[in-house]
Design brief:
With 226 residues, the protein is mainly alpha-helical. It folds into two domains: 122 residues, Rossmann fold (3-Layer(aba) Sandwich), CATH 3.40.50; 71 residues. It is built from eleven helices and five strands; from the N terminus they run αβααβαβββααααααα. The strands form two sheets. The chain has a three-stranded parallel sheet with strand order 1-2-5, sandwiched between helices. Strands 3-4 form a two-stranded antiparallel ribbon. The chain is elongated, with a radius of gyration of 25 Å. The termini are far apart.
Length: 226
């Protein structure tokens, strides 16, 4: 989504808005839409807000020959009434004229919601779908190497460490980054110049050690009294 937003921002005369609170109610949704597209909207007057936004988008289309773009991440968090409002808001002329390009991104819950009868009208209007499967270990390794190179430290991690992290990330890039960050913190604490297998095994061993339970005796006495 960040790559898409950056790519669109580089395009001439393309207006891009990004929803920051997908879980917002209908009134807050209109407030944010007005802020994104430079329109003063009154949430209690949805008809007036719809008219202003549609006119604003049509003016942009007429002048730039491209539709404004709205990007919504974590779209599975959106309320049903907000999704339905967005569907009706983004088109005109009996749904034959599209005024706004909407990009929805979310996890598997979004896919399941779109399959329900309630969201069939929205699901039928989605033109392009890009299902993202779990990344392969090779892809994760390439990503980690790229990030290390971009940071100016391409040899910071031993190849064996990169392969091990990629194999244990379960195809999730975020999990990979969390594990790599923990290793980086351990290396900084030990002032290590390179993250090798010895450091990896040491960090894993420390993480596997059981943590002491604070106040365990007090809890035992309390249970005894009861």
């Amino acid at each position: 989504m960040r790559i898409l937003a950056e790519h669109l921002a580089d395009q001439r005369d393309v207006t891009v808005g990004m929803i920051s609170r997908p879980q917002a109610n209908l009134a807050d949704f209109y407030r944010e839409m007005g802020d994104l597209f430079g329109a003063e909207l009154r949430p209690h007057n949805r008809w007036g807000g719809t008219k202003i936004l549609r006119q604003r988008w049509q003016t942009h289309i007429d002048s730039a020959l491209s539709r404004p773009v709205l990007i919504i991440d974590e779209a599975q968090e959106m309320l049903p009434q907000v999704l339905s409002e967005l569907r009706l808001l983004s088109s005109a002329r009996l749904d034959s004229h599209i005024l706004l390009t909407v990009v929805l991104a979310g996890d598997g819950r979004l896919v399941e919601r779109l399959r329900s009868e309630e969201f069939l009208p929205l699901d039928s209007r989605i033109r392009v779908r890009l299902p993202m499967e779990r990344a392969t270990p090779d892809v994760l390794q390439d990503c980690l190497r790229h990030l290390l190179a971009e940071a100016g430290a391409p040899t910071l991690m031993a190849p064996e460490v990169i392969a091990t992290l990629a194999a244990h990330a379960q195809g999730n890039l975020r999990s990979l980054m969390i594990m790599a960050d923990e290793l980086l913190a351990a290396a900084a604490e030990r002032r290590a110049e390179r993250i090798d297998e010895a450091l990896l095994f040491e960090a894993c061993a420390l993480a596997a050690q059981p943590k002491a339970v604070v106040g365990g005796r007090a809890g035992t006495r309390e249970r005894g009294r009861r």
